[in-house]
């Protein structure tokens, strides 16, 4: 199966997507991870993408589409994949549909994880990382042993990533609302959208998500009718 996970920053999409992919034998195609890797390697694309992300902005569509096209063609995606972080705009969704059609494939489900904004700001405010090894922590759900320093680098104090600072978080949520919300309409119009509450325990959310995907699978629908051309847009 090919599944898209939608959801605002902080809703737990990364965690849920990784588990879904691992347990199902599908590839996790995380654009955030692909981008952070490019940034860390300081490729020309990575440097440009890093500037955009630090400012809370989105990376251009053609860059994202190219990354996803290459990644989803690798052998580990043969049985299926979970897309996390893509598409983020209606033009990207159309590019994805076109890409899959060209391969004789289709998108099986679009899962939208939803949570109140105040909860998302609070959750993201708890994230920290080690500046040396980039290991991720969460002061609430996955704290370091001493509460302040990296478990593997005891002299190194954890830091907040620039894009997790509150002003940037608010900006990211605003960008998400403005640019990604039309996607929900796009997929809903095609009958491919399932909404799952992203609040509650990680395992509860996961089970709800699995059930929702199972329902789309067992409904046995034919490939969704395409929305009328020119509808939606940015
Ligand atoms: Zn470390």
Automatic annotation (TrEMBL):
HAMAP family: Adenylate_kinase_Adk. AMP binds at residues 31, 36, 57-59, 85-88, 92, 161, 172. One of its GO terms (cellular component) is cytoplasm. Consists of three domains, a large central CORE domain and two small peripheral domains, NMPbind and LID, which undergo movements during catalysis. The LID domain closes over the site of phosphoryl transfer upon ATP binding. Assembling and dissambling the active center during each catalytic cycle provides an effective means to prevent ATP hydrolysis. ATP binds at residues 10-15, 127, 200. Its EC number is 2.7.4.3. SUPFAM superfamilies: P-loop containing nucleoside triphosphate hydrolases. Monomer. Residues 30-59 are annotated as: NMP. Residues 127-163 form the Adenylate kinase active site lid domain. It catalyses: AMP + ATP = 2 ADP. Residues 213-234 are annotated as: Disordered. One of its GO terms (molecular function) is AMP kinase activity. The gene is adk. It comes from the Bacteria. This is Adenylate kinase.
């Amino acid at each position: 199966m090919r599944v898209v996970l939608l959801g605002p920053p902080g809703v737990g999409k990364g965690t849920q997507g990784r588990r879904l992919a691992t347990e199902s034998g599908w590839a996790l195609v995380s654009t955030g991870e692909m981008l952070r890797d490019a940034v860390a390697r300081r490729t020309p694309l990575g440097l440009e993408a890093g500037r955009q992300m630090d400012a809370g902005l989105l990376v251009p569509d053609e860059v994202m589409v190219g990354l996803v096209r290459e990644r989803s063609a690798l052998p580990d995606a043969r049985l299926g994949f979970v897309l996390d972080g893509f598409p983020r705009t209606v033009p990207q969704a159309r590019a994805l549909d076109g890409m899959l059609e060209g391969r004789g494939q289709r998108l099986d489900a679009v899962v939208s994880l939803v949570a109140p904004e105040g909860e998302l700001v609070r959750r993201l405010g708890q994230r920290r990382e080690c500046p040396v090894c980039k290991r991720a922590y969460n002061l609430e759900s996955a704290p370091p042993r001493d509460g302040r320093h990296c478990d593997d680098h005891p002299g190194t104090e954890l830091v907040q990533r620039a894009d997790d600072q509150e002003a940037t978080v608010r900006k990211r949520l605003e960008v998400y609302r403005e640019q990604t919300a039309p996607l929900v309409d796009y997929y809903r119009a095609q009958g491919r959208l399932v909404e799952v509450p992203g609040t509650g325990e990680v395992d509860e959310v996961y089970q709800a998500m699995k059930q929702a995907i199972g329902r789309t699978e067992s409904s046995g629908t034919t490939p969704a009718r395409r929305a009328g051309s020119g509808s939606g847009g940015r």
